[in-house]
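Obj.: predict assembly geometry.
Materials: sequence records (below).
Method: joint structure prediction, all chains together.
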Amino acid sequence: MIRLGDIAHGRSGDKGNHANIGLIAFTPAGQAYVEKEVTAEKVKAYFHSLDPDKVERFALPRLYAFNFVLWNVLGGGASDSLRTDTQGKALATALLEMLLPDPINLADMLPPAARE
Amino acid sequence: MSGIPDSIRIGNGAGFWGDNLDAPIRLAEKGALDFLTLEYLAELTLSILAHQRRLNPEAGFVADFPATVARLIPILKTQPGLRIVTNAGGLNPAACARETAKLLAAAGMGGEKVAWVSGDDLMPRLGELRSAGERFRHFDTGEGLNYFEAAVSGPGSGAGSARSGEGLVSANAYLGAAPICEALDRGARIVITGRVADASLTVGPAMHAFKWGWEDWDKLAAASVAGHLIECGAQVTGGLLSRWQTVPDYAHIGYPIAILTAKGDCHITKPEGTGGVVNRETVTEQLLYEIGDPARYHTPDVTLDFTETDVEEVGKDLVRVSGAKGIRPPATLKVSCAYENGFAAKGDLVVSGRDAARKAKATGEMILDRVNQAGLPLSRKYLEVLGAGATLPGVETQPGELKEVVLRISVWDKDKKAVERFCREISPVITSGPPGISGYAGSRPKPRPVLTYWPTVVDRDHVRAIVYVRGAGELAS
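Observations (raw structure tokens):
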């Protein structure tokens, strides 16, 4: 198994009670693998304990990127939520811990510095 | 000052109220800027400022801004082309402008013009807007506020707020770049707004400099992307980067500069000799920050389509961003409201020793049980065992045996007394609960009034921005 964070990077933030995670593959090969393996359904299941209403995935192909929008996932949002992470700051780091099956072409997916 | 420049440099020295106070000074010193922007207003900042203005009618703006201007004065003198655009005006842009003008006048810069923009604050106009058919329904849920719709009950229907509008603390429309551009056209050295879209702080200077048409959507899109990328300050120069280990010299992180050309090209960079980095990774992460559908990112000036955007490294700490498309924005403007909604408090205790996580949970339950026994049941309560994956419960894999955790208990209730009782119930557990509890040296927590965020929209024809431009000397006297 590999970590999603081996082949992609990302950032998360809030909009009211919703959160988004921008996920960017390091390479086109990684982008193709993420497209297949990291679906909206899989991300919704991964964060099921936070009970998002729905998860949408949008593609930004030229950036090797996907934007995931997690609806009503922040327990009320910035002022109302009783959680420590009221703004979804921890979501991206958590998503990058997702385990994926070993791809056959892992070397083509790693960031430039890690390939040297 | 005549003619249209080939390019302009816009630096953003503040990404929120509370950002590094030295950043704007360093950026202005080293950035060779035409415009310095300073962004201070998060979603709920205006409701905090509303509270301050209630205590003092001359308050209600971000006081960090005049303090920053005082430090920028020597730079403004040696860089006569440098102009400042900020949303520091908050709920009281006029008072912020007077305070700023006094500083300029006292420094012998009374001839400089200071501008402020009003019209975003809808609180004085709620009755008029209701008569005009505005309903302020919640952006996502469609629920109504009592003030606008007595028949509809929603989260805003606290007894105090029913029909009166009482309880509503702030209601601000997001203005666009037009009033900022007008203020600069009229010669303002410093432009102070209340709520404007963050990206408009960048679009305004671009429209002033390049005289693009207000329906030249792709150029507005290019400037808006630039604004979106720099609005959070150091988040595009290495802040938050997933591969944070690759960021050089975080401690001296440089703040971002957007270089825009008259043709609509956009580059992101930072001053030479500063820490941090601007590369494909930093720019792409920030491009996706807090967006929804990338084909429809709304601002008051233009609706952006990021889906064909390209990000390429063209030099050291120099990244070109291209391909953003723009279309006409909606006929409505976003409005951020906030209303008073009960009280919250949180208390932390450090729990150590064998079985720390289980012990922490039991301790938290004891405290909440005791508040209940006092006859003051809390409507909402939440226990977190920090160290055991509590920030994302059920998501992060659980670590094994923990010898030390932080117990955090958070509660909310309409009744301040119940929350106060909770605050008093934390320290007794230190002698009447399990052993190994420390970290209670801080003072007893206090109930904080909760301001609930209520996003809505208003017809843009119902909002009028007004631009005031005055000489600093005149304004100061």
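Conclusions so far: The interface with chain B takes residues 5, 9-11, 13-18, 20, 22, 24, 46-50, 56, 58-63, 65, 67, 69, 77-80, 82-85, 90-94, 96-97, 111, 113 of chain A (CB under 8 Å).
To do: check interface contacts against the pulldown list.
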